Amino acid sequence: MCRRLPLLFPLMVLPAVLVLAGAGLPQAGPVPESKPAAAETQTAPTPVGAKEPEATSTDGQPVEPTAAEDVPKPETKPPSPAADAVPAKPVPDKPAEPDAAKPETPSEAPAPGEAAPADKPAEPKTTTPAAELVITPEEPAAYAQCLTDLKALGATFSEKPRIDDGKGCGIDKPISVTEILPGIKLAPEATLRCEAALELARWTKEAVLPAARVAMSEDGALKSINQASSYICRLRNNASTGKISEHARGNAIDIASFTFKNGETIAIQPRDEDGTLSGAFQRAVTATGCLYFETVLDPGSDEAHENHLHFDVLQRRGNYRYCR
């Protein structure tokens, strides 16, 4: 019996040793299949919303994540001073095209080395219309006919070179008249447009001579018409401002007096209340003047015409005539 105990003891202890040894060993699991080498380097993307798998150690135990404060933070690079000082200019998608309808306005900036221009003073307004500052050209056919008619009446005249005194003053085809009718002088000789001279000759023949034969028969025939102004470059009534005078175009003449064969002279003056034949003669020639001229001004019209008759051939709309 005692001999069998040594043989039984190892048999009794062996199961216990095997039990204790099995408790410390991991259970055997299925052997994973081997993956290709290329697949080991690729990481499958984590689906959206899926939880990241926990990191494990080589022995299969989960590894605690490193605290955020334990991860070293990269140093912040200070901003470049040049980048802060000069902002980047935005590049336009397309350069603006100039407006073709608007002409370019030249720059008013002075060139280098030049002084800045001073403000220009306001230009004074003129009361003379621009159209009145142009010398009206004569229509050739009408001018030729006027010369023919004037010669037929017996006037003595000569053609002169074109007059252009600036500011609209001048006559395209002036003539100088010395006798308005045969034996009746125009003193001094007058520079006029042919149209004005022709109307003066017609008025003298058809109105002045008949009135003189009745009112001034004792003084003999009319020998001279004395004029105070024909062509002259000036404004109306010799004013400093206003419209240009018809005298400056050769369209007007001022009659100062009439001289007869015996030397008697009838001067133009206010005669509305003059009951003599001289007064009647002046009123008659003044009234008939409006049959030949577009404008007639006598001593009763204003102070500027106290001593003469103003006649001109200014054309107005509807053949309107101004007679005062």
Q: Could you explain the architecture of this structure?
A:
There is one protein chain. The protein is α+β, with helices and mostly antiparallel strands. The protein has a domain at 139-323. It contains six helices and eleven strands. The strands form two sheets. Strands 1, 4, 5, 6, 7, 8, 9, 10 and 11 form a nine-stranded mixed beta sheet that branches. A hairpin with a 2-residue loop joins strand 2 (163-166) and strand 3. Helix 4 (140-152) runs parallel beside helix 5 and helix 5 (194-215) packs antiparallel against helix 6 (277-289). The radius of gyration is 61 Å and the shape is globular. Residues 19-26, 34-72, 79-87, 94-118 and 126-131 have low confidence and may be disordered.
Overview in brief:
Residues 145-324 form the Extensin-like C-terminal domain. The chain is 24% helix and 17% strand. The chain has a domain at 139-323.
In DSSP terms (H or I, runs of 4 or more residues), the helix count works out at: 6
Proportion of β residues? Answer: 15-25%
Order of helices and strands: HHHHEEEEEHEEEHEEE
Give the helix level as a range of percent: 10-25%
Tell me, rounded to a whole number, the average pLDDT.
Answer: 76
Structural class: alpha+beta
Q: Radius of gyration from the CA trace?
A: 61 Å
Domain Extensin-like C-terminal: 145-324
Protein name: Extensin family protein
Biased composition (Low complexity): 29-47, 103-127
Pfam family, one: Extensin-like_C
